[in-house]
Specification:
It comes from Panicum virgatum. The chain is α/β, with parallel strands linked by helices and 401 residues long. Helices cover 51% and strands 8% of the residues. The protein has a five-stranded parallel sheet with strand order 2-3-4-1-5, with helices on both faces.
Length: 401
């Protein structure tokens, strides 16, 4: 029966073999940890927000030609065989850094978009904490609207006056509210001189939800009238504040024939039969995109293929390397041995970045700041000898003494 105890003369794996295996394991772990560290800010919430614009450098966008063609075609194809409204909607959904904005930009400058839409507008909506519906509507550039004139029209519109008068009457009938405003008036007079109570009442009324909503409705009406004169494409990039109030939902819905327009953004988008209109939205959740565009096409940017991904990696790597060399005032004549090693690992790097453009770019910037790996040979570790042989040598040395 075999013994289960320790047999001192049994051969053991050499120390060199153990260290080599441990080194391989550590190298694999380090490479993964390094890549995760280089792309850490991709996985964490953004420390700052980079607002996108309508400026598009097509030479810096790689891949997605097929997807851009499909989305552009979806935005210009007529509904109901050409008999319905000339309005289409489409969406692009995907996680942060997946290339939603880049794909939308390819559609924005696509030949079909340029040929079919006289006006193309880019509106970056941004994160929820910056969500301002007044600011959003005022960011519709290229419409040639005078902001001061628009504000005057809004303030003096009948519907806004109606809600403001109702709110002022409600405030005047609330003694506690009047006392609070009177206190504000006294404090203001001490700081700024004479101030009228009616001014504060009007300001307080303007902050009420009903008055704000009526103002938004008038702005949407002005937007609708400006866009209805021509064909248009609007890109709403990075919609995140998708709430339950229906403001962004169903952008294909026509405005009500009676009543106010402040409830939905879609009311400001003309959907007539004379001029073509289209809207493209980008957001992180596919369900949100479908709620906004309804039956319109929704796509997800596929992961970048190896060749396109590596072109992006090399661009970001070279730019970061050049910037680092300029800071150090070093020349660029040296051979980049690290880049040669990265070239051999490019498939692994792209796969570990999941083909996400932002992860690939961050990894490239991080690798560009690393020093090349030491090319010296690994130190030779003397193979450990069996324990029994070591014990016999020790015993012989004791006898000699």
């Amino acid at each position: 029966m075999p013994s289960t105890g320790c047999y001192p003369c049994k051969p053991r794996p050499s120390q060199q073999q153990q260290q080599r295996q441990q080194g391989d394991d550590d190298a694999a772990a380090v490479s993964l940890k390094l890549l995760l560290r280089l792309t850490q800010n991709v996985l964490e919430p953004e420390q700052y927000y980079e607002w996108t614009t309508s400026y598009v450098d097509e030479s810096r966008i790689y891949g997605w030609d097929k997807e851009a063609d499909e989305v552009a075609e979806a935005l210009v194809a007529p509904e109901d065989g050409g008999k319905g409204r000339l309005f289409r909607a489409a969406g692009i959904a995907g996680v942060h850094g997946s290339g939603k904005t880049a794909l939308a930009q390819k559609v924005f400058v696509h030949d079909k978009a340029k040929d079919n839409f006289a006006i193309r507008l880019w509106v970056c909506v941004g994160p929820p904490d910056s969500e301002d519906r007044f600011g959003l509507l005022y960011r519709f550039d290229n419409l040639g609207l005078d902001t001061a004139k628009v504000e005057d029209i809004v303030d003096n519109s009948n519907v806004v006056k109606k809600h403001r008068d109702e709110e002022e009457a409600r405030i005047r009938n609330d003694p506690a509210k009047v006392a609070e405003i009177q206190k504000k008036k006294n404090n203001k007079e001490e700081e700024d001189g004479s101030i009228f109570l009616d001014q504060l009442l009007k300001k307080e009324a303007d902050e009420s939800p009903d008055v704000k909503k009526s103002k938004i409705g008038v702005l949407l009406y002005i937007l609708h009238m400006a866009l209805s004169k021509t064909s248009y494409l609007i890109v709403f990039d990075d919609i995140r504040a998708y709430g339950d109030d229906g403001w962004y939902s169903n952008l294909t819905l026509a405005p009500p024939p009676d009543g106010e327009w402040g409830e939905r953004l879609g009311y400001g988008l003309p959907k007539g039969k004379k001029h073509r209109g289209a809207v493209l939205v980008t957001c992180r959740k596919e369900d949100d995109a479908r709620s906004m565009v309804r039956t319109g096409r929704v796509v997800r940017p596929p992961r970048l293929q190896l060749d396109d991904a590596w072109r992006l990696f090399r661009r970001e790597y070279d730019q970061a390397k050049d910037a680092a060399n300029k800071r150090k005032k070093e020349g660029d004549g040296d051979v980049d041995t690290l880049l040669k090693e990265l070239e051999e690992m490019k498939a692994e790097i792209v796969n570990k970045c999941l083909g996400l453009p932002v992860a690939i770019a961050e990894a490239a910037k991080g690798f560009a700041l690393l020093k090349p790996l030491d090319a010296s040979p690994d130190p030779v570790v003397e193979e450990a000898k069996p324990a029994a042989q070591e014990e016999s040598k020790a015993a012989a040395a004791a006898d000699d003494r």
